[in-house]
Amino acid sequence: RAETGCVIEGLIVLGIGVLLWAGYWSVHAAPEMVLMGGLWVVGSGFAFGVPAGLLYHVFLYHALRSADALPRGWWIRPTTLHHLIPPPHRFRVLGWCYAGALGFFVIVIGIPMVATGAFRIG
What we know:
The protein is an all-alpha fold and 122 residues long. It is 80% helix and 0% strand. The N and C termini lie far apart (50 Å).
């Protein structure tokens, strides 16, 4: 669908902008500030992403169970089961999936910030 493509493209552009901003800030700010900022970014990603991922798995489990489509080992590769989610549950399950992915993205942005700050201090 066209709307989904526009949203994804917008998120990609936003992500690139955030990465550029974080890279600039990491090089030009005080090293201690970069290290602490990176730790806060990583911590925020974990604080948001882990509960979102947990809710994703809970809602996916219930959606697949309600459709009688819950295979053994469903938690190992849950994204391969998205096509089995019944339409009424799709928005809730996939919303939490994307929220958890956003938390992971935030963590991935914070890790180089921590490394840069630690490298510049040492």
